[in-house]
Amino acid sequence: MQAVVFRNPETRAEVTEVTLDAPKRGEVRVKIAAAGVCHSDLHVKRGEWDAPAPMIMGHEGSGVVVELGEDVTSLAVGDHVVLSWVPPCGECRYCLQGHEARCQKVVEVNNAHGSLFDGTSRLSRTEDGEPLRHYLSVSSFAEEVVVPVSGAIKVRDDAPLDVIAVVGCAVATGVGAVLNTAGVEPGATVAVIGCGGVGLNVVQGAKLAGAERIIAVDIVPEKTAMALQFGATDRIDASERDAVEQLFELIPDGADYVFDAIGRTSTTEQAIRMLGLGGAAVIVGLPPTGAKASFEPLVLAEADQRILGSNYGSVRPSIDIPALVDRYMDGQLKLDPLISGRRPLAEAAEALDDLETGGVLRTLLIP
After folding, report:
1. Which residues lie across from 350 on neighbouring strands?
2. Could you confirm whether 113 is annotated as catalytic?
3. What global pTM score does this model have?
4. Catalytic residue among 89, 92, 103, 169
5. What phi-psi label fits residue 275: left (phi over 0), alpha (psi between -120 and 50 degrees) or beta?
6. Is 95 considered catalytic here?
7. Where are the beta strands (DSSP E) in 162-299?
């Protein structure tokens, strides 16, 4: 099959002929319909995260099940699935407590080694047999993937596969941060720093939660304008002057919840400074490894405030992903405007370049 191989930040990702082994026990093979290009892929491209290489890139996608490994009974050939980059093991203490986004085995085995649950890969370069690594248990920049069955989430057949691919990361991460991690209450005031693919889903998550004020913050006016379509009530142009000052002009008491959907040191610090009494700053965007932000602990304690980290929107994939697809099909969530364009696999490097310029939300790679 054809797949996009990443080796190091000094070389561009390239499409290569790759051999995909058959699924083993508890795994399935999926023919990819669409794969989303995400900022997490940019962190890898820039060398900002430690990621085993050479690897097949991509962690957001959708497709159709074409082969079952041994002992797989929850899926059938022909099922439509959205891929989850946290395939819960179902055995660690976090999974057993219902905190599947924290799955310990995914962190210690799959992500650390670029493998599936048994510590091995199903990928190799066809030309010379060179072993290739999986990225976040998915590797969706390819014609087909082999994933753990818990990472292939069955969804309704009438949902368009080339749109719902974005549910697997951007939508689950953004909406989940509001509904699961923060538990935003009706009537709350919410600010969202960064109105890209994830940030816009935080905005529509806040609308679903019944927030009274939803303030979109970005340095690109076109992005905050789009946020109004997703449910924002106010806009802040952070390129004009200090965004914190502008927020307190809109909400003198400060915000109940501020979501940092970018993940830079500066935006995390802004999020904390925007809080009102009892407020919570939710870190959704992921920074480079080793980045550090600062805050004044005394102020945080005296104001009864919180800082929350949100990994993958604290989702339970098998429950939340089908529910999000249903919300889209019922008209409660907007997905189509998130998709800036579609490219073939051969243009994966160009799609990453587009994302780096900040001019697109989500590009889909269509094998």
Report:
1. none
2. no
3. 0.96
4. 169
5. beta
6. no
7. 189-193, 213-218, 234-237, 255-260, 275-283
